[in-house]
Write a structure and sequence with these properties.
86% helix, 83 residues, elongated
Length: 83
Amino acid sequence: MSLDAVDIARDALIQALIIAVPILGAGLAIGLLVSLFQAVTQIQEQTLTFVPKIIVMILVAVVLLGWISVRMTEFATAMFMMT
């Protein structure tokens, strides 16, 4: 079974999306919570939204590092095993 470049690129993009969704979702959730907090307290500090999002996204990436490495290893193995 031979895949062409379009199929390989599509599979790579799908894997990247699957890996990125939990990290981006955590950033989105924290951004919404901080925005709600800012709206309630009327604090309009721009760094207040940036710092918590970065911290949470890094923590989620570290927690999911094992899962991410397994997904990437499986994908790379599948790419190398194609003939």
